[in-house]
Design goal:
The structure holds two protein chains of two kinds. By secondary structure, chain A is α+β, with helices and mostly antiparallel strands. Chain A is built from 13 helices and twelve strands. In chain A, the strands form two sheets. A six-stranded mixed barrel of chain A has the order 2-3-10-5-7-6. In chain A, strands 8-9 form a two-stranded antiparallel ribbon. Chain B contains seven helices and ten strands. The chains are: A alpha+beta, B alpha/beta.
């Protein structure tokens, strides 16, 4: 009997027990599907994160307070508040433009959150204190009205520029310009509304509320430091030089002689992308490992069913041996059966996995995320390979057990 | 000489307990014989048949089949012998359920190098010879007991074996179907097939030409049948 006939006859056996065959396959279907979906969604999420970071621009330099290894997380990520970085530091780096013309703009950032009220309407929103040059640094555009000026920043003007979403939540179709809103019991005059920007840098830019830096520090937060700063460089190729220059200026201002004593760190977006890729890769592998466990559980299910099938078909095995089947014929029969179950299950799992990944990608895209639909050849190969491997691994033991049966004993089995 | 048994014994081991079933058997059989092995239950007649039909190995002594020393055969070689040299008819038929008559009869050929077409042709010929040419595509569970045993005979015949073994072939049948089966066996013997039958019924045994009585694992008597029963009727079934 050749392998094709073997497959044909096993196919008929499986067809006679449709429900049991399907339930046996289910473990493999779910396992393979999980591997594919996890790998695809992982790759999609990674693309989302990287696109978000890249959307901030590759010509930006970030300055974070606190020393840190270039590849490690910043101190603020650990929940440590460091108060040494000031607005004046940013000003100094940018204003010294005479010495170093490649840094064209810069702004500090401080963030807080509070309830914003207007005429009884309330929204929970975070507000961000920034300098007037934010427009230049982030390439942002004002849709209605105007952004605040340097002058307004200096004089702690109580003015506010709303993100697109905040404006429409609070005012609907009404024109918000000139109206007054309250943030933390302080009245602010709305002078502008930003254009719809979508999300970038891990933040939905349309829910932002911008207030002048000094106003945010003194009136709303009561602090004198900034959380971080972004500097704009004229061309990407000048980024490295600009980073060196920034470090030099900050060391001078903070009286630091030795670079190892830095109380700040300067990063470029490229470094950020690299660090994030490493983190998301690690996450992806972790998720694949979890999905692989699902596959192994599926395999054990198959072994269980095959062992039951060997018992159930003991008499058949005995008869086959009595009419001349050799041990290897019996092993072959059961192995072909398990491999077929896993193979068919694997194929269904791959199809479902691709379908679900596609739906996830479409839903994410529909929600406005910059999400790529990625199915890697590797994921499919892994799914197929593991499912057949599981079939062989967990099929061999029941198959050998079946073949080892004594024909007479097997025929007498009730 | 087709079968030669010298000082044959068989002992089963279960754990440390030895259960001797056959002791020191000696006999020979020639081609074309029709031998009934008789004995009460527990006499070891079934065990003897299993050893003779290569389903079990002797514990000691010699079994020579057509010049081959069976003691020295490996498991695979024993399977080869079951596949090519003998056919086996069981009391309980042992047909595969939910499988067609044709597939059941072709089953022994599946383990040979024969093509599927050739297998079907041989299975069909065997089924016609037991009068079941009209039941080829029936499922085995749609058949009567007598028909089932005839399918089993066709399956035993399909590889054209040197010896047909029948273990209580009429035990699960009504007397009419039983007679039909004995008729077929006698006709096959007339055509030159060697047949070894195991039974505990004197009447059934008397259809054979020679009776070998076994009691407690030894040969009690070995004699020709004086008044042989000849099964009549349904003779047109066998061509």
């Amino acid at each position: 009997m050749n392998i094709l006939e073997n497959i044909h006859s096993v196919w008929r056996v499986l067809g006679r027990n449709k429900i049991r065959s399907f339930l046996t396959m289910l473990g493999i279907i779910i396992g393979v599907m999980a591997v594919i979906v996890v790998m695809s969604v992982g790759a999609g999420a990674q693309s989302l994160i990287l696109n978000q970071v890249k959307s901030l621009g590759s010509d930006l330099i970030g300055v974070l307070p606190g020393a840190s290894d270039e590849k490690g997380p910043p101190a603020s990520a650990m929940g440590i508040v460091i108060t040494t970085l000031k607005s004046e530091d940013v000003e100094k780096v940018v204003k010294n433009g005479g010495d170093f013309p490649h840094i064209t703009a810069g702004t500090g950032y401080v963030k807080g959150s509070n309830t914003i009220t207007w005429d009884g309407n309330e929204v929970d929103s975070s507000f961000t204190g920034v300098n007037a040059s934010l427009i230049e640094v982030e390439d942002a555009k004002v849709g209605q009205g105007r952004f605040f000026t340097d002058e307004e920043d200096k004089t702690m003007a109580r003015v506010v520029v709303l993100g697109y979403q905040v404006a429409s939540d609070l005012f609907g179709d009404d024109d918000p310009i000139g109206k007054n809103i309250k943030i933390k019991k302080t009245t602010f005059n709305i002078i502008g509304v930003m254009e719809k920007r979508g999300s970038s840098g891990f933040q939905n830019q349309d829910t932002q509320v911008f207030v002048p830096m000094k106003t945010a520090q003194k009136l709303l937060l009561g602090i004198d430091y900034i959380s971080f700063a972004r500097l704009k460089v004229d061309k990407p190729e000048n980024v490295d030089e600009a980073m060196d220059y920034t470090r030099q200026v900050l060391r001078e201002r903070h009286d630091i002689d030795n670079p190892t004593d830095d109380d700040f760190n300067v990063r470029s977006m490229a470094q950020g992308v690299e660090a994030i890729t490493q983190i998301t890769d690690a996450l992806k592998f972790f998720l694949v490992a979890v999905a692989a466990i699902a596959l192994i559980v599926g395999g054990i299910g198959i072994m269980n069913i095959m062992l039951a099938a060997v018992q159930e078909r003991t008499r058949e095995i005995g008869l086959r041996k009595a009419v001349g089947a050799k041990n290897r014929h019996i092993v072959e029969q059961f192995l072909v059966e398990t491999v077929m179950i896993t193979f068919v299950g694997g194929a269904i799992g791959i199809a479902l996995g691709i379908l679900i990944s596609f739906i996830v990608a479409k839903v994410a895209q529909g929600m406005g995320y910059d999400w790529d639909f990625v199915i890697s050849f590797g994921a499919i190969l892994l799914g197929c390979g593991v499912s057949i491997g599981v079939g062989l691994l967990f099929g061999i033991s029941p198959a050998r057990q079946a073949a080892a049966l004594d024909p007479i004993e097997a025929l007498r089995y009730e | 000489m087709l079968i030669e048994v010298k000082n044959l014994c068989k002992t089963y081991l279960s754990g440390d307990v030895e259960t001797p079933v056959l002791h020191d058997l000696n006999f020979t059989m020639d081609k074309g014989e029709f031998v009934a092995i008789m004995g009460p239950s527990g006499s070891g007649k079934s065990t003897l048949m299993h050893v003779l039909s290569f389903m079990d190995k002797p514990s000691c002594g010699e079994y020579i089949f057509d010049g081959k020393k069976v003691n020295e055969l490996t498991d695979d070689e024993l399977a080869e012998m079951r596949s090519s040299a003998v056919g086996f008819i069981f009391q309980a038929f042992n047909l595969l359920p939910r499988t067609t008559v044709m597939e059941n009869v072709a089953l022994p050929l599946v383990y040979t190098k024969m093509s599927e077409k050739e297998r079907r042709e041989k299975a069909k010929a065997a089924l016609i010879s037991v009068g079941l040419g009209h039941r080829l595509e029936y499922f085995t569970n749609q058949l009567s007991g007598g028909e089932k045993q005839r399918v089993a005979i066709a399956r035993a015949l399909v590889n054209n074996p040197a010896v047909l073994f029948a273990d209580e072939p009429t035990g699960n049948l009504d007397s009419k179907s039983g007679l039909q089966v004995m008729k077929i066996l006698q006709d096959l013997n007339e055509q030159g097939h060697t047949i070894i039958l195991v039974t505990h019924e004197k009447y059934t045994a008397e259809h054979a030409k020679r009776i070998l009585r076994i009691r407690d694992g030894v040969v009690e008597s070995d004699e020709k049948v004086a008044n042989r029963q000849i099964a009549k009727g349904a003779s047109e079934l066998v061509k």
